[in-house]
Design a protein that fits this description.
Elements (H helix, E strand, L loop, with lengths): L4 H13 L2 E13 L6 E13 L3 E5 L6 H8 L7 E6 L2 E2 L4 H7 E5 L10 H11 L4 H14 L16 H13 L5 E5 L7 H18 L2 E5 L3 H7 L2 E6 L2 E6 L1 H8 L4 H9 L11 H4 L2
Parallel strand pairs: 3-8, 3-9, 6-7, 7-8
Antiparallel strand pairs: 1-2, 1-4, 4-5, 9-10
Helix pairs in contact: 4-5, 4-6, 9-10
Length: 281
């Protein structure tokens, strides 16, 4: 079972702090453009609210500011202005307490490539203070549900496919049973079957373990399948927010692709030139 005393403690801490899992108000982040030498607003006055138990999908073209915003929420990057609270805790003033409640999976996850999947997970578990026996049990359970057989756990990470490495990154984030999980394009590089396994696991994690999930993705079908609400970033600004039905009704479109094209003037896979330089930082 993924539910552990640690998970219950995190959940009770979050419950005591209120229903709002994430609250961002007026968040701004400016970078110096690499080519232009001018200041570029990667995040431009973004405000959003994610309730406990919600799956919130964040859509945006490359360079729109999605990953920068996730890093701010994860306490990896400090906003220039604005306020971010995780279950009522300020990400600046209460950074250590916030880190106990969150974890993050990104598309550029790093590992000790010479070590095996299990060795990487054991190391991560020690960093988070999880008992070795608990790490082994949780790791096997999670990876089995993600479609990785136990006989692959002893192989060096460098021998595993890109998709399998991404599954190990997801397992690593879930070892601590985070109350708020930040997923930055978690299924990039996975085949269709693996994507479905990850998507099912994400929804089960929310339904069974009271997790709140913020998801960025380039997969519109994934966003529609998983998200309770969706926000659309363009040029560092949140230009629309709502359920799939609300967004399609707003623009008179038939699906999320049409919604995105109408609101931003480009396809999701295109670079957002307004924030391209800033988003690369």
């Amino acid at each position: 079972m993924l539910a552990t005393r640690e998970a219950e403690r995190h959940s009770s801490e979050a419950a005591a702090l209120g229903r709002t899992a994430l609250l961002a108000r007026g968040v701004r982040k400016v970078f110096r453009g690499a080519r232009s030498g001018k200041d570029v607003r990667a995040i431009d006055d973004v405000s959003l609210q994610v309730e406990r138990g919600e799956i919130y999908g964040l859509l945006g073209a490359n360079g729109s500011g999605k990953s920068t915003l996730i890093r701010v929420f994860a306490t990896l990057l400090e906003a220039d202005s604005g306020d971010v609270r995780i279950f009522g805790l300020d990400v600046r003033a209460d950074e250590l307490a916030v880190k106990r409640l969150i974890n993050r999976v990104s598309v550029e996850a790093s590992f000790f490539k010479k070590l095996s999947a299990m060795e990487n997970l054991m190391y991560a578990g020690r960093l988070y203070g999880v008992r070795p026996a608990d790490v082994r049990e949780r790791a096997r359970t999670i990876l089995r549900r993600l479609g990785i057989s136990e006989d692959r756990l002893g192989e060096p990470l460098e021998k595993l496919s890109r998709g399998m490495q991404q599954k190990v990154a997801i397992a690593r984030a879930l070892l601590t049973t985070p109350t708020l999980l930040l997923l930055d394009e978690p299924t990039t590089g996975l085949d269709i079957r693996s994507k479905r396994e990850v998507q099912t696991f994400v929804r089960d994690l929310r339904d069974e373990h009271d997790a709140t999930i913020l998801l960025t993705t380039h997969d519109l079908d994934e966003a529609a399948r998983l998200s309770d609400r969706i926000g659309i970033l363009h040029g560092g600004r949140l230009v629309a927010e709502g359920t799939v039905d609300e967004l399609t009704a707003r623009v008179g479109g038939k699906d999320l692709e049409e919604v995105f094209m109408t609101l931003t003037g480009r396809r999701l896979e295109e670079a957002d030139t307004e924030g391209e330089e800033a988003g690369s930082k």
